[in-house]
Each structure stands twice: as structure tokens, then as C-alpha cells.
Amino acid sequence: MRHRLGRADVAGVRVAVQGLGNVGWNLCRLLAAAGAELVVADVRAELVDAARSAFAAEPASPESVHEEKVDVLAPCALGAVLDDRTVPALTAAIVAGGANNQLADEARHGPMLRERGILYVPDYVINAGGMIQLATERLGLDPADVDDRVRAIGATLTEVFERADRAGVPTSAAARELARERLAGTP
Fold first, then answer.
1. How far is residue 184's CA from residue 51's CA, in Å, rounded to a whole number?
2. How many domains would you assign to the chain?
3. What is d(CA 120, CA 177) in angstroms, rounded to the nearest whole number?
4. Nearest CA to 102 among 130, 73, 134?
5. Do the Cβ atoms of 35 and 11 come closer than 8 Å?
6. Are residues 6 and 57 in the same domain?
7. Which residue(s) pair with 74 in the sheet?
8. Which helix (H) or strand (E) holds 129?
9. Does residue 86 share a domain with residue 9?
10. Lowest CB count within 10 Å: 45, 115, 125, 140, which one?
11. Cβ neighbours, 10 Å, residue 15
12. In terms of Cα–Cα distance, which of 38, 41, 50 is closest to 10?
């Protein structure tokens, strides 16, 4: 929000949530509590009806939710939803969601999003909290460390966005390069 729309809050921001499973539902809950306007889509009509009731959400078709006039598209269901058909039809300024592998072809669709001026928030960065939690549990690290590391995801995303802007590359490419550097232990 801060990088693309120049604001940190979501009050009044229109967000389309694609998929109302555990991740999508909880995202709706948090966004509604923060004052966002929701558009929701899921193949299960009963979940869409429940979201309409719980969050005053507008329903959308799962096949065309990417075409809704929103500020943010949050894919929270299937992967590969950003493809040759959907990317040209996007109206959102930002794509940021909980689904894995949102780009059908990273080398093709990352640049397409950048060319259209759409900020893509790489899924493996925005969703790193789950892996941080799992790694902390398995390694027996201090649970307080999880919170600090999860809070650092925002700074990592800022670094990804700024690198992408400086280099004129898609955020997916900037995130991949940053991940390689961190795994290799280089700055």
C-alpha cells in the first residue's frame, strides 16, 4: 500500500479476495476490521454468501474476479492465476495474496505486470511468515524471534520494491535475486 498507493492504511481501499479458504477468510476478516471494501470470489457459493453477510462483501465470479474494479487483487486460492488472459484484464494497482505460485510463467508475467504499472508482491516473500514459524518450531528457536522475523517481512518487501524500481526489473526478479543473495550470505 505504501509503495504503490502512498498510504499505509486500507480504510476505503477496494480489495478483491479470490478464494475464501482459511487464508482468504482470515484476510477478509482483517481487511474488513481495518475498513477495506471487499469483493469476494470462491467456487463455493456458501462461502461467498457467508462473506457477504459477515463482511458486507460484494460477490464476484471466480472466473472474472481479476476484472473487478479494485485497488488490490489478493489471490488466495489457486496458483498460476496471473497468465496471458488475466494480466491484460487486471484493473488492480497491486496484486498481493496468499496463493502460492501466482504467476503462471514468472519470466513472462512478471514483466507484463511491471509494464502495466501493477505492483506484484511476490508470493514467497509476502507469505514467508508461515515458513518462519515452521522453521522456528523445528529448530527450537525462541518464539519471540518469530514475531520479530515476521515483522521484518515488510522491510524485505520494501527492499524488493526499491531494487526492482532501481534496476527496472519486475519485483519477481528482484525478489529472486535478493533470496539468492541471502541464501549465499552476501549483502
1. 43
2. 2
3. 15
4. 73
5. yes
6. yes
7. 17
8. helix 128-139
9. yes
10. 140
11. 26
12. 38
